[in-house]
Write the structure tokens for this entry.
Amino acid sequence: MMKILLIGFLTFCASSAFSQNNQLGVSDPDAKVILDNVSAKFKTYKTVTADFTLSITNATGKVEGTKKGIVYMKGSKYRVNISGQQIYSDGDNIWTYDKSANEVQLTKFDPSANTITPQKMFTNFYDKDFLYKLNGEKKEGNKMVQEIELTPVDKTKTFFKVLVNVDKATKNIISSKVFEKNGDRYIYTINLMKPNTNLPDSLFTFDAKKYPNVEVVDLR
């Protein structure tokens, strides 16, 4: 679930048939310009706080549930809070806290392991891992939205497509939809993004003292 969540950020953390170029494994240059602009804009932020909503539907279209969450990012550090789970990373370690079990798993962050992080899903994640194309533009409320379709190069992934919506004016990702092979759909909506707010480093480290009797499972 966590991997799917970060893919969606895009990630919090955008359909027509593929063109001839996509069939040959070449991405759409118009889509690349948009994604490059999203990445460049994100890299200008010193910190980012984003409120998001995750909606899950099954293969029949039935809504299985809706969750609200928040993600904090600062440099290589991040924290994700969503319905009973918290994930912290100070850039060296990762703490995954399960509220229902009052347990936290501690693992070592390994940048060489191609680990998915929220930051990666807002920057140049698309260049090597996906083929992508621009589906077009549409009006949503008072926003002009550009829809981009991404298909994973690795066909063993549990998902086969991600649709990303980009606000044309702000160059920020505002929503995404992950299509799982089992028919499930994960829809992520960025409700509010606040860049360059003051985020202390302590926000990205799990403090066991604040969780009485928490079980710490050190897997480093």
